[in-house]
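Practice problem: predict the structure.
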Amino acid sequence: MEMNTLEYVHKLTDEIVRLRRQIHQNPELSFEEYETSNLVYEHLSNIEGMQVEKGVGIETDVVGTLSRGKGPTVAIRADMDALPIFETTNHSFPSNNQGVMHACGHDAHTAIALSVASILGDIWKTTDIEGTVKFIFQPAEENTDAFGKTGSPYLIEAGALKDVDSIIALHMDPEHEVGTIRIHDGYSMANVDVFKAKILGTGGHGAYPHLGTDPIWMLGPVMQSLHGIVSRSISPLDAAVISIGEIKAGSASNIIPNEVFLQGTLRSYTPEVRIELEQRLEKAFSIVEAFGGSYELEVTHGEPALYNDPLVNSALKDVVSNLYPTMNILDIPFGLGGEDFSHMTKTVPGSMVFLGCSIPDGVKRDLHTPIFDIDERCLPIGVAILTQTLLNYLLGIAQLPQSFLNNENEAVQLEGGR
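Answer:
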């Protein structure tokens, strides 16, 4: 089956590249993926036996399902949205939507998942393989709506992961060249929290600072305390970051303002460190009370940390080693960026891998930059890995997560909270 998978992928390579370029030229922002979702819906609808739903949780999501007989239910997820960035690449298929760009590889993710669906559709017709495969094409990974939610929670709430025993996804990795893949057990991307705060004083005339309380003066010890939290209060063995992104105060050279506004981000891996960062943040701002000031602090919790299930990773590693014996598998986390796929792996056992895609010319084309681009040789590799992993689950080659085994025994399914 593995050799057949590579043969399928080889025959489809030109189509994978064409799809990626078509999607790249027509990027759409979060919650606005109308053309992209139409393309996905049409592609899936042309696969014999594929049941296709649109608008399961959000207007622009698409879910395709292949199902026959008994067996596990496995899923892959691909995100579809782009970013508000002016593209400055020099390739022949730049964005046609000025100021919007696929700068995070979602064009590649979507093209890869569509190609996996095509291959499995062909296999479905020529074999009696049993089980269920869901192809989840998710809008709005990059941004939140008016309710502070990205696309993933909406799909989960709508039941897209109901009965799913394992879910996998991949992400482009411009830090490594083609031939490298990062597969990391446990927490691999960060909890993403945002804080907004005000330091409050009385303000006053710049010539008479002794007559009031100065929030700008209070900002000094607060900043020192904030930047000391990670270096002096959190264990060096724990991943954690506090960054200040904005400070606003004042309106004139001779007026001491009555408040200073700050906002920033908190990043962490474990639930324990996430809680500790918030508690330490509160203490840092409370310093102003000793100087006659007060403060307001609001923390908004975003995506949870991405948790990669070790058993799912084991299935992925086996596939990589068998299909590409010389591929370099790196067991290192993906950094302190956020990824809303984390909602899904918190709900059912799953994993995301980072697939090397950098162009080997010495130019850094980082995610979320105007020059981001990929070495398209990574595309068929991603298709082959995802396809074979799904097949291995259906064929009983890969060990299923415990939730499926419990379902088979009519026991209570394990919950996801990690």
